Amino acid sequence: MSTPPVDAPSRPPVSRTAVRATVLLSLCSLVLLVLVAVGWEPLMSADDSVARTTHRWAVDEPGVTHTFRILSDWVWDPNTMRLLGAAVAAWLVWRRGAWWTACWLVAVSALGTLVQQGLKAAVGRPRPWWPDPVDTAHFAAYPSGHALTATVVCGLLLWLLHRAGPPAALWRTAVALAVVSVAGVGLTRVWLGVHWPSDVLGGWLLGATLVAGAIIAHRRWRPAPPARR
Predict the structure, then answer these.
(1) For residue 36, is pLDDT > 90?
(2) Do residues 102 and 212 touch, judged by C-beta distance below 8 A?
(3) What are phi and psi of 156, to 5 degrees?
(4) In 3D, which of 224, 90, 86 has the Cα closest to residue 149?
(5) Which of 36-45, 55-64, 77-86, 214-223 has the lowest mean pLDDT?
(6) What is the pLDDT of residues 89-118, one digit of tens each?
(7) Which long-range contacts does 57-66 make (Cβ < 8 Å, 24+ apart)?
(8) Cβ contact 160:223 at 8 Å
(9) CA angle 198-209-179, nearest 5°?
(10) CA triple 84-89-93, angle to 5 deg
């Protein structure tokens, strides 16, 4: 029996849980954004304390730091994540004929890039500065583009995989890889001293908000399949 295209199932209703999750994530993202923008002292102090501690570890553990640089700059780099999303979009068109879902995937990924670049320019938060840096980064600090992009791409791909009804072993493996990637990229950015912890938290929250909103949009506006004759 052939597998139906991704765009083929009937359109399910948008659940209240999904809407509430999106609203809650949006509010959390907004609160954190405001706290960062106004420089709320308890948050700034916590950021500084964690950043100084992890930077000492990074300097004292060059082997771990080198591994984290490879993971952060190559494996979990935003461009790598975007290429993964683009490859899945191409596969959706080539093997499943799911043009709408493929365009949706690319569009949400692009929106994530626009959101993080726009907020970086608007907030203009300086990155941590060290006399003995172990890595460098460009543009402003908030939010972490690595954390946001990984959350968006991994979240969307997990949802698409879940809709396809994968075998249990494949699903568990995919979830584990996604969790390790999203959590790991945040850890590496703080360890390498190029982001404050709240930059990473902001990237996670904004990415999760985009994923939740994108899922609602897909359920609500995906074109209905043509009627069978």
Answers:
(1) yes
(2) no
(3) -65, -45
(4) 86
(5) 214-223
(6) 999 999 999 999 999 999 999 999 999 999
(7) 57/191, 58/134, 58/191, 58/192, 58/193, 59/132, 59/134, 64/191, 65/134, 65/135, 65/191, 65/192
(8) no
(9) 70
(10) 145
Distance CA 164, CA 4 (A): 9
- Looking at residues 61-79, what average pLDDT do you find? 97
Residue 20 pLDDT: 92
- Domain residue ranges in the chain: 43-124+134-220
Q: How far is C-alpha 136 from the chain's CA centre?
A: 21
pTM: 0.91
Residue 68: burial class (beta carbons within 10 Å; 0-12, 13-18, 19+): buried
Region of residue 140 (phi > 0: left; psi between -120 and 50: alpha; otherwise: beta): beta
pLDDT given for residue 52 in this prediction: 98
pLDDT at 225: 59
Handedness of CA 208, 214, 220, 224 (dihedral sign): negative
Distance CA 218, CA 226 (A): 17
Q: Which residue has the tokens 């964690």?
A: 50
Residue corresponding to tokens 């907004």: 30
Q: What DSSP string runs through the chain?
A: -PPPPTT-SPPPPPPHHHHHHHHHHHHHHHHHHHHHHHT-HHHHHHHHHHHHHHHHHHHH-HHHHHHHHHIIIIIS-HHHHHHHHHHHHHHIIIII--HHHHHHHHHHHHHHHHHHHHHHHHH-PPPP--SS-S----S--SSPHHHHHHHHHHHHHHHHHHHT---HHHHHHHHHHHHHHHHHHHHHHHHTTSS-HHHHHHHHHHHHHHHHHHHHHHHHHSPPPPPP-
